[in-house]
Amino acid sequence: MENSISLNGFIQIALVVSDMDKALDAWCTLFNVSRPEVRITEALPNPGETYRGQTACYGLKLAVIDCRDRGFMIELHEPDENPSTFREFLDKHGNGVHHIGFQVGEARDNVIRELEGLGYVMRNMGIYPGGSWTIVDSEDSLGVNLNIKPHP
What we know:
By secondary structure, this protein is α+β, with helices and mostly antiparallel strands. It has a single domain (9-149), classed as Roll (2,3-Dihydroxybiphenyl 1,2-Dioxygenase, domain 1). The chain has 4 helices and 10 strands. It has helices spanning 20-31, 85-93, 108-117, 139-142, and strands at 10-16, 38-41, 46-51, 54-56, 60-67, 72-79, 96-103, 121-128, 131-137, 145-149. A 10-stranded mixed beta sheet has the order 2-5-6-1-7-10-9-8-3-4. The radius of gyration is 15 Å and the shape is globular.
């Protein structure tokens, strides 16, 4: 790839779980860290997010274990039953690593174009205040999806 993804840009491991409380307890025990806040979102249409080309509408429990002193974070996602990248993964694979995230800065659009040219499908895209993310469907070839972010 002309706009390759630098390993220095690694920022995130994201897991999909069927039981947030059980998974979060296990991770916090493993790392001997305090339990982070669990954010819960409702299943409302989100005009800033698409899933497989459609406006996303799903609920989610999200917790973040902050490992930024090591340069990354661990996210846990428990999806509701509505269609989403997380529900798709959980239904297909069960609990597991949904994606790893990379920050690519200003090269984001070029990286996405090159990945599309290589046959990767953009599964999920979201915009939030001060940032954005794109989940690249790369499970079949890489064993995990990619999250391509321009900035933190």
